[in-house]
């Protein structure tokens, strides 16, 4: 029952044949599902993120203090700023957080979205147009090339976003931001952090990025098995029967 594919692939293949979809156990449908769902997790955890941290600036003159400065930042992490008291009457100064980290974040999300769209399209082709997909070996070859490109793009985008996330963490560290506030440089004023930003969602997005890299790179083998190159390789590696000699299956059989 399990030869030629996993139990799940065999059951899916039988279901496909029953519905007239032309699917067989060799179709790597299970491995097309996994990158699709993990691509969703990767770009959604990054693209939907918003965070906040709080600080307090206590001036010598208490009436000029601000004990709850909220600094909000969100995807794509571009040119965030906030207003802080100067401890000089009611004047405020605008503080910009270090750097523009939008390029790596947007690149990562874009790769995730396109990976999801491609996998959805590929899955539809596998289910409804499998015979066309196998025709003249064009479908498997295109699939192999695109899968390889996405595996490489996941490597590049995940590495870039991991570096970008490290920079975002440094830029939103309350202790580092406090040093940028002019009033906090004066000894008569007291500044402190109240609440750190929660970065677990962004950490998860990086993890999902590298998981997608592993899934897409691993999926290359299953896509390669659908190409004619794999069939030719198996044909060349098969032993040839000698003329007039017994076939391999006849050894040990009674004559």
Task: Please provide a brief summary of the model.
This protein has 255 residues and is an alpha+beta fold.
Structural class designation: alpha+beta
Helix content: 40-55%
Spans of at least 5 consecutive residues whose pLDDT stays below 50 are 1-23, 247-255
Could you give the order of the helices and strands? Answer: HHEEEEHHHHEHH
The number of domains is 1
Radius of gyration: 29 Å
- Assess the beta-strand content as a share of residues: 5-15%
Region (Disordered): 235-255
Domain MARVEL: 23-228
Protein name: Synaptophysin
Subcellular location: Cytoplasmic vesicle, Secretory vesicle, Synaptic vesicle membrane; Synapse, Synaptosome
Walk me through what this model shows.
InterPro entries: Marvel, Synaptophysin/porin. Keywords: Calcium, Cytoplasmic vesicle, Glycoprotein, Membrane, Phosphoprotein, Repeat, Synapse, Synaptosome, Transmembrane, Transmembrane helix, Ubl conjugation. Its main location: membrane. The structure is a single chain. This protein is an alpha+beta fold and 255 residues long. The protein has one domain (31-229). Helices cover 54% and strands 13% of the residues. It has a 3-stranded antiparallel sheet. A hairpin with a 6-residue loop joins strand 3 and strand 4 (92-96). Helix 5 runs antiparallel to helix 7. The longest helix is centred in the middle third of the chain and has 34 residues, at 138-171. The model is unreliable at 1-23 and 247-255 (pLDDT under 50).
């Amino acid at each position: 029952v399990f030869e030629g594919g996993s139990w799940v692939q065999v059951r899916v293949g039988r279901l496909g044949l029953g519905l007239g979809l032309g699917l067989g156990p060799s179709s790597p449908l299970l491995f097309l599902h996994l990158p699709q769902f993990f691509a969703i997790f990767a770009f959604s955890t990054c693209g939907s993120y918003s965070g906040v941290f709080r600080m307090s600036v206590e001036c010598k003159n208490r009436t000029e203090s601000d004990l709850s400065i909220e600094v909000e930042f969100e995807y794509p992490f571009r040119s965030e700023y906030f207003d802080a008291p100067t401890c000089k009457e009611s004047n405020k100064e605008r503080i910009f957080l270090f750097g523009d980290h939008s390029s790596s974040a947007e690149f990562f999300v874009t790769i995730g979205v396109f990976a999801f769209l491609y996998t959805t399209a590929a899955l539809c082709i596998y289910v409804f147009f499998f015979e066309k997909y196998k025709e003249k070996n064009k479908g498997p070859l295109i699939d192999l090339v695109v899968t390889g490109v996405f595996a490489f793009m996941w490597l590049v985008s995940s590495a870039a976003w991991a570096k970008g996330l490290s920079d975002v963490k440094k830029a939103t560290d309350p202790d580092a931001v406090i040093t940028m506030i002019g009033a906090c440089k004066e000894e008569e004023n007291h500044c402190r952090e109240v609440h750190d930003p929660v970065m677990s969602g962004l950490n998860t997005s990086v993890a999902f990025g590298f998981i997608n890299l592993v899934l897409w790179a691993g999926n290359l083998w299953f896509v390669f098995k659908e190409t004619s190159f794999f069939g030719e390789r198996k044909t060349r590696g098969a032993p040839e029967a000698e003329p007039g000699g017994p076939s391999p299956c006849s050894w040990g059989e009674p004559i």
